[in-house]
Design a protein that fits this description.
rod-shaped; 7 helices; Tetrahydropterin Synthase, Chain A; alpha+beta; 46% helix
Amino acid sequence: MTMQSTEERPARTSNGFVYVAAGIVLLLAGIGLFAMRPVGLMIVLVVIAVLLAMWCLTGLYMLQPNQAALLLLFGSYRGTDRERGLRWANPFYAKTKISVRAHNFNSEKLKVNDQRGNPIEIAAAIVWRVDDTAMASFDVENYEAYVLTQAESAVRHLALSYAYDHFDEPGASPSSEVTLRSGTEQVSAALRDELQQRFAQAGIVVVDAKLTHLAYAPEIAGTMLRRQQAEAVIAARSKIVAGAVGMVEMALKGLAERGLVQLDDERRAAMVSNLLVVLCSDHDAQPVVNAGTLYN
């Protein structure tokens, strides 16, 4: 059986200052009549004036900006008042005030597995506010606890839906896969959408949601750091070798075009080897004086 949601509707209330004035006038009138030592019908008028003054004054309540009041009559929802200032409603109404301001909280650091099964730590900052006061009050037991629980569940599900980072093989084209580390905007949008779906049952709107902490779990952090360093070294070496090959090709072509030296295959291979060593080495090249030839 599907639970029927309760939708917010405006309550019938009035300006409180009007009832303050009416209550004071009626109270003064009752005191004045009582001072005249009423008898008979005058006593009835005194009682009526005092009762009406109490009716006017006991129905008063005050609302601050971004605050609402739910009105209940013997357990029956009669509407929500969002008007600020001094207000008046039926004194028999139970008035429950609820804040519709923006709330902010940081989730705890959660240890979960990403899409590839790597243990990571993740946390998020979430800004939310109550949009439908009736749903927040009547469709969930405690909407603040509901937000905390559903936010933790959404962050866990988000971590399972994405990989922490790319692991491209050397020489492979860069991957377009969205990851937690590289796809900040897409991941934040996905988190907001999932939170909104979960919060909708409680009449709550997600204002903003972003990841505030993202790291590998301590037990694999060292290993992953070494892997990232190795990938960086391999990528740098690949660029160095590619550039060195181009420079060697340019040097051989320039020598051939200018006719400075005639190189057979063996001499060309030796020159290519020497140039690559010089260009790719981490240390300064040490010149070697060759007094002979390659053939003796």
